[in-house]
Amino acid sequence: MAKLAVVIGAKETGSKPLIAAEALKKAAEAAGTSLSIETRTPNGVTTPLDEATISAADAVLIIGDIADDTRFAGKTVRKLTLDAALADPAGAVAALSAVKLIVGITSCPTGIAHTFMAAEGVEQGAKALGYAVKVETQGSVGAQNTLTAEEIAAAEVVIIAADTNVDMSRFAGKRVYSTGTKGAIANGKALVEKAIAEAVVQGASAAGGKRDLAAEVAAEKAARSAQRSGPYKHMMTGVSYMLPFVVAGGLLIALGFALGGIYVYDDAHAGTLGQALFTIGKQAFTLMVPFLAGFIAYSIADRPGIAPGAIGGVIAGAIGAGFLGGIVAGFLAGYVVLYLNRYIKLGRNLDGLKPVLILPLLGTTIVGLLMVYVLGQPVAAALTWLTDFLKGMQGANALVLGAIIGMMMAFDMGGPVNKAAYTFATGLIASQLYEPMAAAMVAGMTPPLGLALATKLFADRFSADEHEAGNAAAVLGISFITEGAIPFAAKDPFRVIPSLMAGSAVAGMISMAVGSQLRVPHGGVFVLLIPNAVTSLGGYIVAMIAGTVVTAALLRVLKPKAA
């Protein structure tokens, strides 16, 4: 129910204000709207609006003669004459209830002056045009006035006035207009008018009415990203920023081996291209844990958390705590900096010192000392035990691990369970354990590949649009995009998901049984073309084919004929 506040003012005594108030109350009751009314006449003020009522109101309607409206700062305000309100009270309530929302994000490289000036410009421009407005500022001390999922969903348009990169994933399906801060600062009203006219739908699907599986997958991934919260969200942020370093490093190491052999790192190959590529790849790997930790902290505490988190990750690597230490350092840094940022108050003029001086210094000191003296060695011991345990897995134990990884990868196809298995396997690369990564990737390719095969071999089990989607699923599958199976699973989860899990379990078991090792955490079949990127290549391909066939066969057995 919309909550509206109304102030009616008249310079002369008379019954018009009271009649207007009663008419508006009846119109609001008929429209299902909550209405609070204050009347001002020469005789005094009737039922004055308190601060709590004004704060809770979605919009404010000022009728008649009200000179001072400063107490409604920050609210959407519309004005009417007393005669207009009396002539059409229902229209006045409906117009106020239908106030549309504009949301935005502003950001600049320094995150201080232009960020807030642009936000003020967008707010003033939107209000001048009669819109409700909320602007999130991504400044030097982190995001403030953060937009909620509900506010984004309700917005007519999203305005991005930023001179830095802004994550657009949470605006999938919304009309978005992107520009710099300059226009918002110079003329906010003109910018808002242009945004309303020229905004385009973020992530719009292909025209023509045909089912676009790639667009569906992208929308689902964006929706899942928007729904992430708490530690899971922070972990996935760190993993997403870490991955490019692992991919680049792994591929360069593989190319080094391809050019110089498995002993490319020894003195006999000094100065060769193979050793140079190998060295570059190893250096890329050294950044893996710091970036994991730094961006876990960034997700928690925004930009001020990056330096303490990354430095904590460097310490974790130096003391042998590896990716587990990086995770601990990232969360520790994030929450330490978040606490410091929240409770250190310097005032707006001095807040610029916090992200560049105070928070990095205090955060790094606290995190560094805790990692060195308290947490680092226990985490390093835990990682050593885990590494030794996994290296010692042979025979049936290896098959069990492969099956578990496979089923987790297929269970929710890019969801929390899938990401837990993937993060575990990716993190072990830093400890020179490559078998779990191989099992995770082949098991992640199997679900969409199995569905694609089933749509061709058992066409009577699928609808016409699923036949078309099967072609895209094959491309997504070979690219290691497990989410390509989501639209099929969402339509028939109790038959499709068990089939996917069984096929992925078989793929993971075979991969572990043949001892396949994968040095690159992404890329699908395309990385298999690079020599030494994966070992036991023949067995690995067998694992992928077997998992795909098992998935397709079970879909044939479990799914009934399409209507």
Any descriptors?
563 residues; alpha/beta; six-stranded mixed β-sheet; five-stranded mixed β-sheet; 22 helices; 11% strand; globular
Average pLDDT over all residues = 83
Total DSSP E strands = 11
Distance between the termini: 43 Å
Count of discrete alpha- or pi-helical segments spanning 4 or more residues:
22
In percent terms, what proportion of residues is strand?
5-15%
Low-confidence stretches: 205-209
- Largest pleated sheet: 6 strands, mixed
Describe this structure in words.
- The protein is an alpha/beta fold and 563 residues long.
- Helices cover 60% and strands 11% of the residues.
- The strands form 2 sheets. The protein has a 6-stranded mixed beta sheet with strand order 8-7-6-9-10-11.
- The chain contains 22 helices and 11 strands.
- It has helices spanning 16-31, 51-56, 82-87, 89-97, 113-128, 149-154, 181-186, 188-198, 213-227, 230-260, 273-286, 288-301, 306-318, 322-343, 353-391, 396-411, 416-428, 435-457, 464-478, 486-491, 493-513, 537-558, and strands at 3-9, 34-41, 44-46, 59-64, 77-80, 101-107, 132-139, 142-144, 155-162, 175-179, 200-201.
Detail the topology: elements first, then pairings.
Layout: E1 3-9, H1 16-31, E2 34-41, E3 44-46, H2 51-56, E4 59-64, E5 77-80, H3 82-87, H4 89-97, E6 101-107, H5 113-128, E7 132-139, E8 142-144, H6 149-154, E9 155-162, E10 175-179, H7 181-186, H8 188-198, E11 200-201, H9 213-227, H10 230-260, H11 273-286, H12 288-301, H13 306-318, H14 322-343, H15 353-391, H16 396-411, H17 416-428, H18 435-457, H19 464-478, H20 486-491, H21 493-513, H22 537-558
Parallel strand pairs: 1-2, 1-4, 4-5, 6-7, 6-9, 9-10
Antiparallel strand pairs: 2-3, 7-8, 10-11
